[in-house]
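Box 3.1 A note on notation
Throughout this textbook, protein chains are presented in two layers. The first layer is the amino acid sequence; the second is a token string describing backbone geometry. Keep the layers aligned when reading.
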Amino acid sequence: MEGTDTKVCTFTFKKRGKRQNTRKRRASDSKDSSSEDDSEVVRRKKGTSGLMVQKTNRLKARDDVKYSSSDSEQEKNSNIGVSYKSNKSGQRDGPQDMGATATVEIDTEKDKDALAIAERAVQINKEQRGLEDDRVYRGVNNYTQFYEVKDTASGSAANAANRYGPKRAPAFLRSTVRWDYQPDICKDYKETGFCGFGDSCKFLHDRSDYKHGWQLEREMEKGTYGEQDLSKYEISSDEDDLPFACFICRKTFTNPVITKCKHYFCEKCALAQYRKSKRCFVCGTQTMGVFNPAKEIIAKMEKNKERDDSDSDTQDNDKGSDSNTRGNVNQVEGESSGEASEEED
């Protein structure tokens, strides 16, 4: 046991070499040395102390530069971030008339639009009329026309009533127009009482009647402002139930009568039908030969007759007034012609 050698394990540690990518300090330049003279104040911005507010620290640097009287004006301007140089005049910028004579240049130029091309063609044709052909090409719109076209867009381009191409818009007119068709009121709900959007509709659900400003102004001019027609929305249900013609002859009633089953006929038609059958012509109910005068239809017919007579009278009065005015005009013309003949004599 003593003769045997004991082996001892040795550990070696590798030394780390210097990193090749280490950043070296840059040599100071003359510019950097000159900037050291300027003092720089660093201020730490105070943050609000709140549990729900978290911000990173920010540094606010401010250059504390003191200018001396020896510094030039150019150096002072270079240190200022914003500079403005006056033009030494008391006039405002822009046009002198403040844009009063500015023109709208959104349309085609006046020397290139369709009207200018047509006018140029008409002028060239006038100059070349009666001369020999000089065989000069003047464009596709300036071919020689051997006959003068009238009352057409291409032939009367100089005429304001019949122009070639779209009408020129006024260049000095600038207007802002807003058409207000009863704003913020749901049109569907006002006309029908139903809207597909329901409560989510952004317009007002109201079925009342509103008037615009121009409607109120028109009423003021006519003198009807504030007047209300109380019978405008009246609906008479009695007139809707009454028929307007006989069920048998399909013509206007002549001496109308009514049966027990509330059906209306002419007296002549009812008696002729009773000779054929004693039942009602409409529903087949037994009439027993009883026909009473239809007082409601008779009153309605008299009312309509009076209204028609009044309308015809107003029309006759209008025609009479027109004829009287014409007669007066003819009489005045006759008197003037008589006076002229007397002067000639």
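The beta strands are 39-44, 59-64, 256-258, 264-266, 292-293. The CA atoms of residues 3 and 281 lie 152 Å apart.
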